[in-house]
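dude i think i finally got it to work??
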Amino acid sequence: MNKFIIGGILLAAIVIGWFIISTPSVTDYVAAVDTEITELETDLAEISAQVLAGTLTEEAATKAKVRIVNRLDAITSASASSEAAQLTPAQRIQLAAGLERLKNILITYQGTLNNVEATANETNVSAELARRGGGSYNRSKHLNLVVADAIADVEATVADSIQDFEPNAELDGQIDVVVDETQAQVAAEAMIEAEAQAAIDADQAEGTTEEVTTEETTATTPDEEEPSEETPTDEESTDPVIELEAVAETETTPTSN
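look at this
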């Protein structure tokens, strides 16, 4: 009996210990937000150097976009998880500071994000994100807008965690400008693509119409009349009877002595 009791106590202790070890603490979540933001900033600084040097390739941009989206997803996930626990005053300050850093990243590296967006192979980006199962944001969005979505999510967490939280109005104004400019850029590019596609469709439709018209014309046009035998010329059409009479007259006409 005592063996069963001791065994049960040991099993309960193991289970409790495993949960304690495997379950991240609030400190881990807050630290994860900070770590991911720092790595995102470092990554963008390196990409910016490549853009300035003109060495950013499609492959590098594709990998960069995948990393950026995954980091943003990790930031928002860790931030949301920290909201479930009671944060200490220091942790709240740390989260708020991380939010401002994230906003500054978008403002500082909006041009770099534009270059990554323009250079990356979107098909490969979507395939890689799907394979990894990462990136909960709309993958068809421009990177600037993806960062802006992450900022909004983290800000919602900070606002819920910090009583009387007041966002930085100056930074928010700059973020709004970036978002507005990016949305206008995306709309303009979409319009250009739509016009180009419409022109292609019109050319294809015109080509199809011309082909059908040509076939119909060929089918309804009567065959040309076969050329008739050559009409003889005046010289070739002399009647043989007339020729004989002319010869006879020549023979009967007396010659003069």
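The radius of gyration is 43 Å.
im so relieved honestly
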